[in-house]
Design goal:
This protein has 434 residues and is mainly α. The chain has one domain. It contains 20 helices and no strands. It has helices at 3-19, 24-40, 43-56, 65-79, 81-93, 99-115, 118-135, 140-151, 161-170, 174-202, 204-207, 221-243, 249-266, 272-306, 308-318, 323-337, 343-359, 365-379, 387-395, 403-426. Helix 7 packs across helix 19.
């Protein structure tokens, strides 16, 4: 059996196992091991290769950035900075038709700059923003849709865990990935705000209309600055340290985690039981990410041994496929896999497979990373998996709001993400790439 045939069969089996409910990492590792066994005809060789990959996959110092940024996000969440950011944004936009939705987007954009985890944003703002928006008159569909859409900003605006994972897999600078995500993240946030204004103006049946009392008083400048001060300090420390050349991304993660811990402690949010819980949660999240990376490394090694990347590049060359065609196939696969897999798994599956083909077109891998993250983010809002939508469902206090309502509410935002993806494809300079 040729490497191409075996690789095709292994991919089909892998997708079938995932559909049947097997954990993505276990499916990746199992299929990779069995494929190597069949191809080499020797179980000891397959076992040796798998052992080497498992040993070397996450041995690099660079992987220390994952638990540090996850821990920082945990402390930020515990300190209640998300609620403070939303309170200030809500005060600033309260008089505007659609202002509560814009406040949610603005708060999520700022929150993304200090956590980088979309799931955290979805859980936090579901409890903060959805009841507030519904209390003032917005529909449940629109309220959960705004939270679902804006929560994915955490995957794009640095520091993002997904940008870190892509950088590690594609072997590109994480600092360059962070820089590349800034403008596309801002563009997506602006597009969301324009969408919210348009929906509130032209589709009031979908959004409802928020009624804010004329005598409602804002927070005032001093109070707003006081609430935002910890967030500003944290963003300046982490991103300013990276872009100013003071920290490596890993060191910035450590500094940010320590600063976030101090902020939480000053606000009286920490205790020994809380510290243990945050450390345990960080360990679980980190272990799941790194386990996926190990399994993806086994998958990547299996592809390399079978010669699949070079064969794919040759096939595309033989077909005289244009770069546009290859990119369309890549994006279509990302969106399709988004219906069954989480974002990290999609990156770990597709990036090792397609990078050799893209390199033959002399593609800038940093730009490709932003395209990849935008593409897989769409999957966070699409059924049947749509992780962000499931997190929102689990975080809602109002149990009468079903998944159908959440997915319908998120649909306009998923389509808007498609517009942002097309914008980045047409204008690669947005990512500071050539």
């Amino acid at each position: 059996m040729s490497g191409l045939e075996l690789g095709s069969i292994s991919l089909i089996v892998m997708i079938a196992l995932i559909y049947l409910g097997m954990h993505v990492a276990i499916a990746l590792a199992s299929v990779s091991f069995v494929a190597l066994w069949f191809y080499k005809g020797n179980v000891l060789v397959a076992l040796s290769l798998s052992t080497l990959v498992t040993k070397d996959a996450i041995a690099s110092y660079s992987f220390g950035v994952v638990p540090l940024f996850v821990l920082m996000g945990m402390f930020v969440n515990e300190a209640g900075l998300g609620k403070d950011i939303y309170t200030v944004a809500n005060s600033a936009f309260r008089k505007l038709n659609g202002g509560l939705g814009i406040a949610t987007v603005a708060a999520n954009a700022v929150f993304a700059a200090i956590t980088g985890i979309s799931i955290a944003s979805a859980a936090i703002f579901t409890r903060i923003a959805v009841p507030e928006m519904m209390r003032y008159g917005h529909t449940a569909k629109f309220s959960v849709g705004v939270v679902a859409g804006s929560s994915v900003l955490g995957m794009l605006i640095p520091p993002s865990v997904l940008l870190i994972v892509y950088g590690l897999i594609a072997e590109v600078s994480i600092a360059d990935m962070f820089t590349a995500g800034i403008l596309p993240g801002i563009v997506l946030a602006i597009l969301y705000c324009v969408l919210i204004l348009a929906l509130c103006r032209f589709a009031p049946g979908f959004t409802g209309r928020a009624v804010v009392p004329d005598d409602a008083v804002g927070l005032g400048l001093i109070k707003s600055l006081t609430l935002l001060a910890p967030t500003v300090v944290l963003i300046t420390l982490v991103l300013g340290g990276i872009y100013g050349g003071v920290f490596t991304p890993t060191e910035a993660g450590a500094a940010g985690a320590f600063a976030a811990m101090v902020i939480a402690a000053v606000k009286g949010k920490l205790s020994w039981p809380v510290l243990w819980r945050l450390a345990s949660d960080t360990g679980r999240i980190t272990a799941s990410i790194l386990f996926l990376i190990i399994a993806a490394s086994m998958y990547s090694r299996m592809l390399g041994v079978l010669g699949i990347p070079s064969l794919l590049a040759q096939e595309l060359t033989g077909m005289e496929a244009s770069f546009t065609m290859v990119l369309l196939i890549y994006v279509a696969l990302m969106i399709f896999l988004g219906t069954i897999l989480d974002s990290t798994s999609i990156i770990l599956l597709l990036v090792p497979l397609f990078i050799p083909a893209f390199l033959s077109y002399d593609v800038n891998l940093v730009w490709l990373g932003i395209v990849t993250v935008l593409g897989v983010e769409i999957g966070l809002l699409t059924p049947p998996l749509g992780i962000a939508c499931f997190v929102i469902k689990g975080s809602l206090e109002d149990r009468t709001i079903g998944l159908k309502t959440i997915f319908l509410g998120a649909l306009p935002f998923a389509l808007t993400m498609g517009v942002a993806l097309l914008t980045v494809i047409l204008f690669p300079s947005l990512t500071f790439s050539n």
